Amino acid sequence: MRLLERMRKEWFMVGIVLAIAGAKLEPSIGVNGGPLKPEITVSYIAVATIFFNSGLSLKTELLT
User: Fold this and answer.
1) 64 belongs to a structural domain
2) Which PANTHER family match (predicted)?
């Protein structure tokens, strides 16, 4: 039970480790022209998502 609590607390690090392990096991998914299309997703979708999330975190009082 203690391990599960620790994993819930450190969910971001667990996710990073899983992402790195997945990339090590199957690197062809992230290659240019691969199924994830990183030339498009990183350039446009990821940047737009970061800005959108940043905008959502702003307090409405600061916007007025």
Assistant:
1) no
2) SODIUM_BILE ACID COTRANSPORTER 7 (PTHR18640:SF5), SOLUTE CARRIER FAMILY 10 MEMBER 7 (PTHR18640)
